[in-house]
Every structure is written in C-alpha cells, then in structure tokens.
C-alpha cells in the first residue's frame, strides 16, 4: 500500500493583517505537515500548488522552506509538487530551483513513480487558455498499477468551479484513479466519472471566511483509493465572535460577548449584525487586544443610516491653475511661453527641446519676449527668509534610495491584490512540463486587501482572464499540447 500526504495552498510568506507573527504561522503550518509526514513515515508529500503566497517570496521565507524540504529529504520522503497561480513566474519556477537542489520533484506530463503509483501534474492555467489544452500525458509505466493527477484550479463539482473535471478525465490519455487538487481553500471530496476528486484545503486561514479547521489529506492507495482528513493541531487559533444586536443594544453588548471568550494570542474576528446602535470597530478591536489577542478585526454588517451631509466637490482645471499661479508669481512672458510648450499635450516629448529652442530663437530675434530672473521662493517648511544671493549653497540632492524595491525583471510586478489580476508566463521545457500559467500579485487575490483576502474560491472568478489575447501556445497547430505551456 502507498500512503502519501496531500497538501497545498500553504501560502508561505503571506503577512496577513500586516502581522509578522501571522507570516511565521504560514511557514510553521507547512513545517507541521512535513513533520507529520516524517512521524507517520509516509511514502511522499504531494503539494497541489501555491507553496508561496506570491512569485517573489522573501529570503527568510525561502530559507525556511528549504529547511523544511531538507528535513523531508533527510527522512527519505520525496516532495512532489506543481505550480499554483500565486507563485507562477514567467520563466523558471521556484520549484525548479528546489528540484535542482535535490529537494523536490516537479510533476508534469511524465510520470513520477512512488512505489506502484504514477503521479502526474497539471500546473495552473487561466480559464481563457484552457480550450487550447490537450491533456496528453505519457503512458503509465509497467512498474505502476495506479495513476494520480495533481492539479491546481477551481474544478467541478465544487463551488465557484471554472474547470470541467469530467472533460479533463475524458480527454486525458491516462486513466486516473484520483485527482488531488489545490486552489480552493475549503476541503472537500467528491467522485467524478468513478474517480475520486479531492481538495485538501489550505494549511492556514488566509481569510476570515475560512472558519473550518485547517489540515491536509492522507491518501492511501491499494486495491482502492481512500482519503482521510487530518487537522493541523498547532495552527493559530481564530476566535469568531458573532453578535446579534437588538433594540437599543450597542458597544456594551459587544464587549460583553467578547469577554466570554479566551482570546489570548488568537486572531479575533468580531461580526456585528442585527439592529441596535452604531458600533465603531476601533474600541472593540482595542478591547480585544487589551485582553491578549494577537490580531483583532471588528466588522459591522448592518446597513446603518448615513447622516453625513451631501458634500459637493469640484476640481479646477490644473493647467489653468498653473497658469494663474505663474502669473501671480510674476514669471516673465518668455518663461510662461516655455512652460506652455512643456505642458502642451499636442507636442511629443521628443520634440519639446527642439520646439522650445526654436521659439526662444524666434523670440530673441524679434525682441518679442521678455526674459528675466525667476524669483526665489522661500521654503514653506523653513524659518529662514528667501534669498537671491548666488553664493548660498543649495540643498543636497534628495536620497532616492528610500527602500523602494525594483520589480522582478523575470515577471510582471505584483499589484494586487490577490489580487490583483493574473499575468501570463512562459516556462521551461515543453516536452516535460504541464501548464503553469498566470501570475498573481504580492497583494492578496485580485486587489483585495490582505486583512480581507477571500478564499481562492472567489479569486479565479474575478481575475483569471487578464491575459486574453496573449496566447502562449504552439504556433504550429491550432490545438496546443499540455506541454506547450511549460
């Protein structure tokens, strides 16, 4: 019998709620899964994508991940994985680096055999490009009796599905006994065409909506396939406090409900519903933190009347405002003419210098423009008076190295959230790799703020078509082989 741990959506590097402790939690959860694998002496750990939260994990996240993978390697337990949408890069993947170091195997169209089970991989592919896929896998070797596909995406028959599981199984050149999935953070198991299809769920709560305990699957393959759900006992506790207000109840009632919970070192989520008085989130969150919570968030879901006055806002034409300001400063006609050329949208940037030079020459030749020294304005933040003395030293140049990082040249910069739409990529060896497409952002999915990031169920619905019109398939055939996306 072959026994493997099926995990995924570890999202290492996610600093949820801007909390360094939460960032550590995501790595700790992955470490807990690996140590369970070692304690149980399983035959492999299978990761179904989104090992990292984004394509540019921090160095501590990489070091921590390598440390976990080294523990598995030292125990003789192979780490088999695919690429999810969060970590996808345009060229080589982090998983390729781990494979080069001998700590991982990237699954693809060629089988990887563990005992008598052949494992195949299907990286994430955006919905806009799935019609081009041909699910062409290499045959099961004689040394294997069973075949399992590992894939990343939102598959039927689960919620918010955009990928036809029945079509994948029907069009594949291999008859699979099970499909191990990642991307949907909610665990679940179903059958499609007499084949087990299962999500392991995320190992940490990436959203307050993920209330179920976090965990992974233990998959046993013998004459049949059995799937058992296991919880991660060491995961950070989330305390959900739901308060239904009635009548004239308000903040005192919310405080009373919150005081009934042990919130020490927990993430506390307070949800207010019903009627009653308006409740400001800040005092509730402060109260939870005073009682020892690591993080506190209060959400008032009620539709309360808005007593704010109707404020009308108008904006002046910026060009007119600049012109008037220059006139007030006493800038000469010549200088204002040059300024007008610089700000003229009808003049190409490449022609500004030539146009200014020509107009200055024309003006000087005809004595038609007056040029004079511009006034020196006082620094509004300084107590010193302005001066026109030429001997006064100017301010030193500003330091432009203020911590702004340069985007990854190998892939598009993250936005996102989430975001955050997904970008296309081109990767690896088309003869051996399955589809791995669409990058996500450093921000949580699809532009959603970190503290409100939804499960991956909603991510794909809102943003996996961002690279329409930029297909990355074969130019030789209308139908694209699964390997052409690698």
From TrEMBL:
EC id: 3.1.-.-
Transmembrane parts of this sequence: none
Residues engaged in binding Mn(2+) 1: 9, 11, 50, 185
Protein name as it appears in the record: DNA double-strand break repair protein Mre11
A GO biological process held by the record: double-strand break repair
Pfam family of the protein (one): Metallophos
Biased composition (Polar residues): 403-418
The keyword DNA damage appears for this protein: yes
Top-rank taxon, per record: Archaea
Function as written in the Swiss-Prot or TrEMBL entry: Part of the Rad50/Mre11 complex, which is involved in the early steps of DNA double-strand break (DSB) repair. Mre11 binds to DSB ends and has both double-stranded 3'-5' exonuclease activity and single-stranded endonuclease activity.
Reported cofactor(s): Mn(2+)
GO molecular function, one term: 3'-5' exonuclease activity
Ranges of residues in domain Calcineurin-like phosphoesterase: 3-156
Residue numbers spanned by region Disordered: 367-486
Cofactor notes: Binds 2 manganese ions per subunit.
Record family assignment: Belongs to the MRE11/RAD32 family.
EC supergroup of this enzyme: hydrolase
Residues of the active site: 86 (proton donor)
Phylogenetic classification of the source organism: Archaea, Methanobacteriati, Methanobacteriota, Stenosarchaea group, Halobacteria
Subunit structure: Homodimer. Forms a heterotetramer composed of two Mre11 subunits and two Rad50 subunits.
Key words of the record: DNA damage, DNA repair, Endonuclease, Exonuclease, Hydrolase, Manganese, Metal-binding, Nuclease
Xref: InterPro entries: Calcineurin-like_PHP, DNA_Repair-Maintenance_Comp, Metallo-depent_PP-like, Mre11_archaea-type, Mre11_Halo, Mre11_N
Binding site for Mn(2+) 2: 50, 85, 152
Regulation: Nuclease activity is regulated by Rad50.
């Amino acid at each position: 019998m072959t026994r493997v741990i099926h995990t995924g959506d570890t999202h290492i590097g996610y600093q949820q709620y801007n909390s360094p402790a939460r960032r550590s939690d995501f790595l700790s959860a992955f470490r807990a899964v690996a140590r369970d694998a070692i304690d149980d002496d399983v035959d492999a750990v299978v990761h179904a994508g989104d090992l990292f939260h984004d394509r540019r994990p921090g160095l501590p996240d990489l070091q921590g991940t390598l440390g976990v993978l080294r523990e598995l390697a030292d125990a003789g337990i192979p780490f088999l994985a695919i690429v999810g949408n969060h970590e996808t890069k345009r060229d080589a993947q982090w998983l390729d680096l781990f494979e080069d170091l001998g700590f991982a195997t990237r699954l693809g169209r060629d089988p990887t055999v563990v005992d008598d089970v052949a494992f195949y991989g299907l990286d994430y592919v955006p919905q806009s490009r799935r019609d081009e896929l041909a699910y062409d896998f290499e045959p099961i070797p004689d040394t294997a009796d069973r075949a399992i596909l590992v894939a990343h995406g939102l598959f039927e028959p689960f919620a918010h599905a955009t990928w036809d599981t029945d079509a994948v199984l029907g069009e594949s050149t291999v008859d699979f006994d099970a499909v191990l999935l990642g991307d949907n953070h909610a665990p679940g198991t179903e059958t499609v065409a007499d084949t087990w299809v299962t999500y392991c769920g995320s190992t940490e709560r990436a959203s307050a909506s993920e209330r179920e305990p976090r965990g992974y699957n233990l998959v046993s393959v013998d004459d049949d396939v059995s799937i058992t759900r296991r919880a991660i006992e060491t995961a950070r506790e989330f305390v959900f406090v739901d308060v239904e207000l009635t009548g004239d109840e308000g903040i005192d009632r919310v405080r009373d409900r919150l005081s009934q919970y042990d919130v020490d070192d927990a993430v506390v989520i307070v949800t207010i519903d019903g009627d009653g008085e308006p409740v400001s989130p800040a005092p509730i969150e402060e109260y939870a933190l005073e009682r020892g919570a690591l993080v506190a968030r209060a959400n008032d879901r009620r539709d309360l009347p808005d007593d704010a006055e109707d404020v009308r806002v108008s904006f002046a034409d910026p060009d007119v405002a600049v012109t008037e300001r220059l006139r007030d400063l006493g800038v000469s006609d010549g200088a204002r003419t040059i300024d007008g050329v610089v700000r003229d949208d009808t003049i190409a940037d490449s022609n500004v210098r030539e146009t200014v030079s020509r107009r200055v020459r024309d003006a000087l030749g005809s004595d038609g423009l007056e040029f004079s020294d511009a006034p020196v304005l006082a620094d509004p933040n300084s107590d010193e008076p302005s001066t026109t003395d030429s001997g006064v030293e100017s301010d030193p140049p500003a330091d432009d190295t203020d911590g702004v990082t340069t985007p990854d040249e190998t892939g598009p910069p993250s936005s996102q959230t989430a975001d955050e739409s997904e970008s296309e990529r081109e990767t690896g060896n088309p003869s051996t790799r399955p589809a791995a497409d669409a990058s996500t952002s450093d921000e949580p999915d699809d532009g959603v703020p970190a503290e409100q990031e939804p499960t991956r169920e909603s991510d794909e619905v809102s943003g996996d078509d961002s690279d329409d019109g930029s297909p990355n398939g074969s130019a030789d055939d209308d139908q694209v082989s699964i390997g052409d996306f690698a």
